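Propose amino acids for all 435 sites.
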């Protein structure tokens, strides 16, 4: 009696899947097999395997010893059964995971070394399990491992993108540079292995398929959030921000000396507004003029310029250049650039005379913040910044005024102030009182 007629269950036994039906006695098989047994075996020869059979085959394979397990998979591959069982379009991700875990326990496949993310704020993800894709494996199994590894790559990078978004949101909630520093740098994504073991018969095809799965490093979004929050916490305009500006000025002569006075109102894109007074004395002759006054910070500010027929160019001690062109009837336009501060903009103006030689000037314009020259050098430098980088001066307990001038300038560009440094020293002393 053959293996089919001996079993009570309608499912195929080990002999059924490891030995083709053609090798059995066809007449004897037909005489002993029940209708349900014949239908079940035919299901394995059909183009697709029913889900109930997928579950049953998995349970049946689980009962096989390791040596029989490998031989059975190879024979199933020869008979075309393994491809139906491991049908990539019909087999669920859960079933694939269960089969590969089983094949690993039976010693047929091996997983790649685990890649665990370091402990960090916002919980960066671990890399899902990937498996070694060896040439000696059955073709259907190689296909399954490749698809499983591709899914692991896609799942991991989706999870890392979500982590970067969580981190960026947390950054924008930081209330101080010290709190921002405590978050640490965003964790870099791992490189997910394709599992291919060389030489491999499917190498070219699998590599082309692998490259189509997105795997970009999106930490630039996190660093952009850090840059924006640093600018906000330090009271600076972040790169890419813009504002609208209105200036009202009066200039004339008083007691034989020239003067100018007025105010400037700036409204940033976030709706915040601030104003600053403008004023000083003016001297000049034959189109060449100069003025002295104070900047917004209170520091002395000197401006020199050349003007003729309403057109002119001016430069001041803060690094700003301004070009003005007339448009007739008291109207004109202007453009401004400050390479030092990384700002640029422009606008329109109207001038009206009042009284004798006095005149009122009203201008409306806009400005944008680009990258400052020092920050551009910082980006090009290989020296780490002071927000996430090491601070040996903090470990040494140096006061702000004791820091080298170049180091202090870099820290100021990173948003540090003497008050924040003193707070960092105080926190460190409270945390490590013996140091």
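Proposal:
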């Amino acid at each position: 009696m053959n293996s089919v007629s001996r079993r009570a269950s309608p499912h195929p036994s080990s002999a059924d899947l490891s030995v083709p039906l053609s090798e059995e006695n066809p007449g004897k098989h037909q005489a002993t097999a029940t209708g349900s047994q014949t239908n079940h075996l035919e299901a394995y020869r059909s183009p697709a395997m029913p889900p109930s059979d997928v579950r049953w085959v998995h349970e049946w394979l689980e009962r096989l010893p390791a040596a029989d397990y490998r031989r059975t998979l190879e024979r199933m591959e020869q008979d075309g059964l393994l491809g139906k069982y491991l049908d990539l379009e019909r087999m669920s991700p859960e079933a694939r995971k269960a089969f590969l875990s089983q094949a690993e326990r039976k010693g047929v496949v091996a997983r790649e070394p685990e890649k665990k993310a370091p402990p960090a704020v916002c919980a960066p993800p671990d890399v899902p399990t990937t498996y070694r894709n060896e040439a000696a494996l059955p073709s259907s199994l190689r296909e399954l491992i490749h698809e499983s590894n591709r899914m692991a790559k896609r799942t991991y990078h989706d999870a890392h993108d979500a982590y970067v978004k969580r981190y960026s949101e947390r950054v924008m909630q930081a209330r101080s540079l010290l709190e921002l520093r405590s978050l640490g740098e965003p964790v870099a994504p791992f490189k997910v292995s394709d599992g291919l073991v060389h030489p491999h018969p499917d190498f070219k095809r699998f590599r082309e398929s692998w490259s189509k799965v997105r795997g970009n490093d999106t930490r630039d979004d996190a660093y952009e959030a850090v840059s924006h929050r640093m600018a906000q916490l330090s009271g600076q305009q972040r790169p890419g921000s813009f504002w609208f500006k209105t200036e009202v000025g009066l200039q004339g002569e008083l007691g034989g000396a020239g003067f100018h006075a007025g105010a400037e109102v700036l409204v940033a894109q976030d709706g915040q507004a601030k104003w600053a007074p403008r004023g000083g004395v003016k001297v000049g002759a034959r189109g060449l003029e100069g003025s002295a006054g104070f900047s917004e910070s209170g520091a002395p500010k000197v401006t020199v310029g050349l003007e003729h027929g309403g057109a002119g160019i001016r430069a001041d001690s803060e690094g700003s250049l301004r070009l003005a062109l007339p448009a007739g009837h008291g109207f004109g336009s202007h453009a401004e650039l400050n390479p030092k501060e990384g700002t640029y903009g422009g606008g329109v103006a109207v001038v009206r005379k009042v009284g004798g030689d006095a005149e009122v000037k009203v201008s409306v314009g806009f400005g944008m913040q680009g990258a400052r020259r020092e920050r551009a050098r910082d980006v090009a430098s290989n020296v780490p910044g002071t927000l996430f980088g090491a601070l040996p001066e903090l470990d040494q307990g140096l006061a702000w005024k004791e820091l080298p001038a170049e180091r202090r300038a870099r820290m100021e560009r990173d948003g540090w102030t003497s008050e924040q440094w003193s707070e960092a020293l105080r926190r460190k002393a409270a945390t490590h009182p013996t140091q």
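The chain has three domains: 3-223, 242-369, 379-431. Residues 379-431 form one domain.
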